[in-house]
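Running low. Invent one:
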Amino acid sequence: MQALARYMMRGRVQAIGSIVSLALLSLIVPPLTILTTAGVALVTLVHGYREGLVNLLVSTVIFAVVTGVMLNQPAFVIEAVFKNWLPAWLLASIVLSKTSMSLAIVVAATLSCLLVLGFYFFTDPAAYWLEVINEQLLPMLKEMGIKFKEGQQTENVWLLMSTIMTGSFLASFFAVQTLSLLLARWWQALLYNPGGFGQEFRQLRFGKVAANVALVISIFAIATENEIAINLVFIIIVLMMFQGLAVVHNLVAKCKLSPSLLTGVYIVMLFTLLHGAIGLLLVALVGLLDNWLDLRFRLCAKAQDELN
């Protein structure tokens, strides 16, 4: 990772080459999207928003030639630019100008929420996703040999999925952007400020305003079962999850707790992800409460008292 970041920082040609190469590889291995997006953010963080924009534009032209002309898939460049690179450049520019990673992540969450509202304003998201399920997802699953029982119960499952896929999709978009920003910030710290990222991440806090808005939307979604609010809650959960993780990392570092606590938290989050995501929800709840209760200070003070 550090070698890749160092190579990107050798010059504009190396940065653009890395961003485009990783973008092409991500067409085969989708998780590499985080690396190419982080590359755009890293250039912006280190060399400024103008240089970051130049790299983005040149990378776009090269990627468009390769995917549009050679591969005859022009949609790939549109997705790369508007879903990955442009938001990464914007968030890195916010960090650069405001020196606040928390603000940049809140902006990313707000942008994701606005996209949810835009989906409902301009389209019928449930109908759109139901069409995607029937015409793309199900045929693909059948080709893979996966069979489903026919009947009303199965139809109800697909219908339920169609009502929450907008929030799920944009929550994943938000998560990728946030992870890419964090990765870029970590790379920057490795190269120019060793140890700085850990300290910055442990101080991550989104504030009472964001927490109050999140709480109101969540209560409204639970009380009314409003489809739009439910989809917004997906983004809220991911947002507060990052602060919850910051709290856990802070407790381990400041309260001298065992690092196995971190490992345990991540394992629980991973293994419960497909079974109600209880681990993720609990971490998000910790992050939400921290905005009002300052849990990282209170719990550390309690731990110190117990040690004394």
About this structure: The chain has a mean pLDDT of 91. The CA atoms of residues 35 and 171 lie 18 Å apart. The chain is about 85% helix and 0% strand.
